[in-house]
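User: Show me a protein chain along with its predicted structure.
Assistant: Here is one chain, sequence first, then structure tokens.
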Amino acid sequence: MLLLLTIMTQRATALEIPHETYTLDNGLTVILHEDHSLPQVVINMWVDVGSKDEVVGRTGFAHLFEHLMFMGTDRLPGAGFDELMERHGGWNNAWTSEDATDYYSVGPNNLAETFLWMEADRLDGLARAMNQEKLDKQREVVRNERRQGSEDTPYGEAWLRLPEVMYPPEHPYGHPVIGSHEDLQAATVQDVTRFFNTWYVPENVSLVVAGDFDPETIKPAIRQYFGSLRAVDVADRAAIAPLTHPQQKLLELTDQVQVPMSILSWHAPATFQPGDATLDLLAAVLGDGRASRLYDRLIHREGAALEADVYQISQRLGSLFTVVLKPSPDHSLEDLEAAVYDELAQLAADGPTQEELQRVRNQLEVAFIQGMESLQRRASRLNHYQTLLGTPDGLQRDLDRYRGVTAKDIQEMAATLVEDRVGIIRVYPEEGEE
């Protein structure tokens, strides 16, 4: 493996994913990462578009396009994309977030050029091959996904409505990634084609080829398949001021659940901005594992909670520091919320202990390094850094953010997580569910 890890005194002193980066004349970024340990190749195509780039009344398009991208072109019609690669031992998947859409194909190394041709064909020919039948089919798939994955899932409505609690409707994060039924039903072929032609352009795409390949063969193939794509200027994105307070203080819901749940969220610094890594470590001090403060207090010692999880949900335009609580019988959501405020106040007063800080740093660093063992995850990480930092060479910088966090930093960030800045969603069992 060419992922270089040098570990000394419980910390990696050198961490990189060897790569070569260049840009085609049309603006498409290419990142090559060789790893000859297995006869495998990964093609990761990252499109810098997510639900944040949608407009009011046309939400869910970024995720809808994740589905439409597999509906075929004139050269590879129908389910030909999946059928061709699966017939030769490959597989693929994709995901969409508020900030990005990521497509990846994995297979034996002899499929590298085939994968490249298929991805270039989608970028070149998908819009021309779009029609009402394809849109109608995938629109219903996405609407069913919304029903099954959120509306009919315990606590799912709470997560769907978190954006409206934390953001104004016109904010890029003011709606869920999956969009609304109304907007999906209103979408036309012209709408989705316009979205594709706006964002699925070379300058807005970065392509990683990772694994067992010969650069002298792959570079001409990339130039042949992607170099002819038409250059298009990427649409401007408006600057968004950071938010400090939620749109709603409290939203109360009922659901077909047996245990109540609270979601507490605070606006937090955007990913890679000062404070983001600090809040990752603060979340671990509060809620990561049996040694964390909330687990020890609410679950182990007091028996007041069945669940107490804490996350720093890092996002490009602003993050959310989020606590999820489920009470045990004879305890209330208000009891657990008060305990969270109390633990945050203690951290704001005294900071974490050095033992706590070292523990969460060690946990994060081990998970960080282990996560790089997967070729597919390395490919995605290269694209992630390219988009956020302007260079794929971000692993060491990323890890160093956490190494530089002090107990005082955590203390100061805890002091910002005050009760008058929190947005709360409480979910109660419907009558007869308890």
